[in-house]
Amino acid sequence: MSPRVQTSNQEGRRVTVTDVARAAGVSRSTVSLVLRNSPLVKRETRRRVEEAIDRLGYVYNRNAANLRRRTSDMVAMVINDLTNPFFAELAVGLEEALEAAGYVSLMANTGEDPVRQRRVMEAMREHGAAGFILCPAMGTETRLVAAMSDWNVPVIQAMRWLPGVGLGSVVPDYALGMRMAAEHLLALGHRRIAFLGGIEGNVVTTERVRGYRAALDGAGIAPDPSLIVPAAVNPGGGIEALRIALALERPPTAALCFSDVVAFGVLDASAAAGLTVGRDFSVIGFDDVATARHTLPPLTTVAVYPQELGRRAAAALLRRIADPSEPPEEEILAPSLVVRGTCGPVPKEA
Predict the structure, then answer these.
(1) What is residue 107's three-state secondary structure?
(2) All domains in the chain, ordered by first residue
(3) Which pTM does this prediction carry?
């Protein structure tokens, strides 16, 4: 951008960020990100903003902006389960985007404990966090949101969300992803398809089951409640869920798994039961963590791109920090089905 000395418009009024945003056709938060040299702004958008700044003669007073913000350059990342490789990959995307924007990230693993979650968030607030990226722990109560509203600090929910609380969120389209997975199995001839894993009553479980049911309904198949087996979201949960499913009078020929880590347990349990995955029994995971491509056989799964989701969540939070008056955003990312080696046609004897 060229040097700027003019500070007022033709009417003698000082040029503001709002003037620049209006001239460039963007939001005030986008202008603020450009002024902070954030890499999160697309090149074409940055060019439009810089042209508007030059044309209007806007001068950025960084010291005054820092005083107005009254925040540190630290962002709190509150993650529900860092032992799950999916959330570790999400954290990588978050941290990379925040660092690129000049922010220091402070991370906490809540271990799915709402009490611990509340405690670490209060501590991070006391340390001056400019904003929060929150992956809500199982059982998080909406009263936490009421408390956060008094903190006057922006919060973006990632991967999970608390319905109806008015916070911004960046999440995958869980229902669409699971519907795509179920339709793939249906196209292979499977009709007894189990849904394994997940905690009943959790919004993410509800959405994934909704997609599963929608695919069956579309094929004219009445869902069998016995084929939906809740279980812990870990390999042990997958092992136990498959054991229950295979013990049914009419066992499934395929399984949709709540997540890849559940699917890893299902793969182990299938082998222990003498089933060859991809021939005798089909399995689809959800998330597409890095390990999914290295199982034997490689896992068919629904990709939701955790690192990209982390970068999107960071960008959404930085826009709120730059302009707290911006309304909360709800961004839903489209998933895709990644077909590998764990699915095959329904066995002829089934």
Answers:
(1) strand
(2) 17-67 (1.10.260.40), 70-171+306-333 (3.40.50.2300), 174-305 (3.40.50.2300)
(3) 0.78
